[in-house]
Amino acid sequence: MIENVAIVGTGLIGASFGLALRAAGFTGAICGVSSPPAVAAAVEAGAVDRAASLAEAVASADLVFLAQPIGRIIDTLRHLDPLLKPGALVTDAGSTKCEIADAALQCIRRGTFVGGHPMAGKESRGAAAADAALFRGRTWVLTPADAADLNTPLAHRFIHWLHAIGARPISMDAAEHDRVVALTSHLAQLASTALAATVAENVPAERLDVAGSGLADMSRLALSSYELWRDIVATNTGAIEKALTTYIQKLDHIRENLRTRQLQEEFERGAKLAATVRGSSTRGNLG
Amino acid sequence: MIENVAIVGTGLIGASFGLALRAAGFTGAICGVSSPPAVAAAVEAGAVDRAASLAEAVASADLVFLAQPIGRIIDTLRHLDPLLKPGALVTDAGSTKCEIADAALQCIRRGTFVGGHPMAGKESRGAAAADAALFRGRTWVLTPADAADLNTPLAHRFIHWLHAIGARPISMDAAEHDRVVALTSHLAQLASTALAATVAENVPAERLDVAGSGLADMSRLALSSYELWRDIVATNTGAIEKALTTYIQKLDHIRENLRTRQLQEEFERGAKLAATVRGSSTRGNLG
């Protein structure tokens, strides 16, 4: 059973998880651990019942949800074990999984760590923007070190609640997760940043009105703050380097084939992928 | 005075121009030249008064507006001159300007050609999707071979009507136009196509649900049809090759600096450009 939940980091994701649990009928206690203003905002939003120190929140928690930035999650894992209720399930919401999994493997003994990554977010940050429906219809990746870690009563309850809040949990290796998101997420961010920076350096400011809506679309991600991405890039450098290399090779191929049928093939391949990614999907997920 | 307008090519752009003229109070005649079903749709939409052959429409037209695909515009220019009313103003809506300007320079004698590129469009095509407000607030680039070509009474009337339909006309060299759109539009398209094709080839289909909204954004342009882009790429190959080279260099630089402060600088540069491009703008335009 999950009676007590500790949400460590009560920003958009942590606070939305609290709200979503409540909306789905969770009646246990939810403690929030964060800076005083952040946790006050989460209490105000109804996302957590009360603020607590890490030690206090974790002492009785059956489920510990680390929803901090990646670097902070790794820090927390290094201090967490002695504070845990024996047998607790510890999970997280970090956007990269291998380095977090390594830290958990070294540090977590008294409980079980199952990495997680909800594929959800929005442009606004903080508990004030929290939304009980944030995870609805969205994939929630779980990266257990051992598949058996998902076959405990506590993990079953956690997965039950993920379904209850509308998420679609799936399971994969941390390394596979990091390789896939390097291509589907991190590469998209860097392609946008690089495009915007290229235009900034090569188009005079007074000519920027000679642009269609395509550039506006393609530069939305470039608005993202470096603060958010620094940890992601630092903890998934190898996979991102490979993804960039593959993308550069594709661009090179296109440049060399602007007047051949190869370009048509790339358009067709790209359009098919775009239709899949942008269409509604009902792929199988974790039962 | 502009009393008779011929719109050659009555798809989205041509038909929207007809509707916009009418909505702005134009009371002259508007003839449409296109395939029978396309021109019937334009008549039905109220964008043109009637269908006519090219020869018939152009014989009395003070303004000839070529709103066909680029390759068709170049074909039309090669046959147009003997049919023109002497002194007519011929303009177009092609997305690249140098090759069209070259064709006009070789072929148009009895009238004056001023190249044009309205920075407007939408995903739906054809006269059925036409919209009198399509050009409102959008830049409309004019690329006269000689600046004096914009200083004739007829050109003044044309520019008057561009303002009247809500467009923001600006003037520049055809070569500068093509260099700028290679970066602001054509590169954005190819960056999206290349990203989508890269993901298609490197992420198994069953893992595509491990993607955030960023990839959906970044692959919208990849839905564009090759048919539309073949002419653009074929008529702006040099500038597009250069733009791709510059973009690849930027991606290389980012790949080599994933863990240095340089990455932060690229994020800051990109975010600034994105805010400019995505923000509302009130830059000066042609009086």
What's this entry about, in short?
The structure is a homodimer of 287-residue chains. With 287 residues, chain A is an alpha/beta fold.
Structural key phrases:
homodimer; 287 residues; 6-phosphogluconate dehydrogenase C-terminal fold; 11 helices; 50% helix; elongated
Which protein chains are joined by the largest interface, and how many residues does each one contribute?
A-B, 92 and 92 residues
Fourth-level CATH superfamily of the largest domain in chain A: NAD(P)-binding Rossmann-like Domain
CATH topology of the largest domain in chain A: Rossmann fold
Strand order of the largest sheet of chain A: 3-2-1-4-5-6-7-8
Gyration radius of chain A, rounded: 21 Å
Count of β-strands of chain A: 8
Oligomer: homodimer
Question: Would you tell me the overall average pLDDT of chain A?
Answer: 95
Could you give the distance between the termini of chain A?
Answer: 18 Å
Instruction: Estimate the helix proportion of chain A, in percent.
Output: 40-55%
What is the domain tally of chain A?
A: 2
Strand content of the residues of chain A, in percent? 5-15%
- Total of helices of chain A: 11
| Major sheet summary line of chain A | 8 strands, mixed
Q: Examine the secondary-structure arrangement and name the CATH architecture of the largest domain in chain A.
A: 3-Layer(aba) Sandwich
Question: How would you sum up the global shape of chain A?
Answer: elongated
Output the helix-strand order of chain A: EHEHEHEHEHEEHEHHHHH
Show unreliable segments of chain A: 280-285
CATH hierarchy, class of the largest domain in chain A: Alpha Beta
Structural class estimated from helices and strands of chain A: alpha/beta
